[in-house]
Amino acid sequence: TTCLLGTMHLGVDPERLPASVYAKLDAATTLVVETDLTDPAALKIGLRSDGSTLDVELGPEYWAKFVAVVGETMAGAARHMSMMAAASMLPQTAPMDLILVGRAKNASKPIAYLESIGSQVAVLGKWMDARAVKYMLDHLEHGKKAALEGLAAYEAGDDKLLDKMMDSKDWVDSGRTEAELVQFKEDLLYGRNAAWIPRLEQ
């Protein structure tokens, strides 16, 4: 029997998952997740390679906002990191996937991965650009509210509401187009999901 669980990677406290999720995990012989988030290669991938720095790309106004959110020390460490890495430093809870992996490791279960950290970062890095980070910094409270609404829909199993929440308003408000949203969903969701099927069949 294969059990498929859709995880919310950020913004959701994993302890709020139903007990049945952990019961299935504890009974499983193997855990399969998207990618190895503990791969040391992730740190190298997060470094900038364009010769610029995060504060220059964000500009003085948004760099000041970033520093105010993450603090001087973390901001200083992030200056030579990618925009995607910077976004991951904004307020969030522990990634649900890591919680599940940790539980599986504690039980000495085999863990398999569907894609490399490099391929995942390539997709995320393409879309987590300065426009996205600036929008997040401008709308931190909105982001928290949306995360809570998403959590409520997730816990209730309300897939229709979750789908509705993925509308284009925030996307367009951040300076991106409807056509880009279509391509974003293809890159982040549909294309990757299709590529996982052969691996899942193995």
Strand order, largest beta sheet:
1-2
Could you name the ranges where pLDDT drops below 50 across 5 or more consecutive residues?
Answer: none
Largest sheet: 2 strands, parallel
First-last Cα distance: 14 Å
SSE topology string: HEHHHHHEHHHHHH
Protein described:
The chain is mainly α and 202 residues long. Helix content is 63%, strand content 3%. The chain has twelve helices and two strands, in the order H-E-H-H-H-H-H-E-H-H-H-H-H-H. It has helices spanning 19-27, 41-45, 54-70, 72-78, 83-87, 96-106, 117-127, 130-138, 140-156, 159-165, 169-173, 178-201, and strands at 31-33, 111-113. It has a two-stranded parallel ribbon.
List the helices and strands and how they pair.
Layout: H1 19-27, E1 31-33, H2 41-45, H3 54-70, H4 72-78, H5 83-87, H6 96-106, E2 111-113, H7 117-127, H8 130-138, H9 140-156, H10 159-165, H11 169-173, H12 178-201
Parallel strand pairs: 1-2
